[in-house]
Amino acid sequence: MTARLRLTAWIDGVSVFAPGLTGWPAARAALAGAGFTATATEIPKLALLPPAERRRVGTIVRLALATGLAACESAAVDPAELPTVFASSGGDGSNCHAICETLASDDRLISPIRFHNSVNNAASGYWGIATGAMAPSAIVSAYDGSFAAGLLEAMVQLATPAETAGRILLVAYDVPYPQPLHAARPISDACGIGLVLHDRDCGRGGARITVECGDEPETRMADAALEAVRTGNPTARGLPLLAALAAGGQQRLVLPYHDRLGLSVALATG
Asked: What is the CATH architecture assignment of 7-268?
């Protein structure tokens, strides 16, 4: 019988912007049972980009950058120094919609800005502009399993210290599509989750995380309102992980990765 691949890391920084969850400190209290109300996602203003680039980016890039920066602040690390993994189910749907409208019109010339914002690594590119980061960056997309795929990619990279120097930033993010795309791929509201991962305990009280693939059913949120948030956005499939971090102690959960495959996660906090 072949042994499963098992990977271990330490979570040193966390960020989240989701319906009713604005920033990790407030979200941590809500996820630990202090009370939750699903309000519209609040994305912090982005001042780090130069004005020209700031005018060109859409909601999804603002969300991705805000999420990554907040995770780095939580871990007290310089964002310019971290390799990154960006995970998104569908990238910039609003930009895709605008391109489709142009192609369906009499004037089919595509704006160069729209073209370079249409690729799924646009957020990674703007991250480099905003932070000055020169470290490697990977981009993954796996439909509703995108958060789990991003987490797995980050932890696999951590197993190659020469590439990451023992730490990496995961940024997962998704925003709603405009109509008519929304009818085919409904996403209720924006959600971004960021994690700074290390390959060893840095002595900051971070949680040890161990992952392996399996076929168990995904973990759901006990609170009906939080479960609606979880199922309303692909990135929000990572909420059970944040809830386990908020609860502390020894926790086990399963994140959706594929129709017949889940990512089993064991957490241990001091």
From this structure: 3-Layer(aba) Sandwich (3.40)
Amino acid identity, position 8: T
What is the chain's pLDDT, residue by residue, as a tens digit (270 residues)? 345 789 999 999 999 999 999 999 999 999 998 899 999 999 998 888 878 777 778 899 999 999 999 999 999 999 999 999 999 998 888 888 888 888 888 888 887 777 777 788 889 999 999 999 999 999 999 999 999 999 999 999 998 877 678 999 999 999 999 999 999 999 999 999 999 999 988 777 789 999 999 999 999 999 999 999 999 999 999 999 999 999 999 999 999 999 889 999 999 987
Domain boundaries, the chain: 7-268
CA distance 75 to 80: 13
**What pTM, to 2 d.p., does this model score?**
0.94
For residue 175, the cross-strand partners are none
The token pair at 157 is 């990279």
- The C-alpha atoms of residue 24 and residue 215 are separated, in whole angstroms, by 30
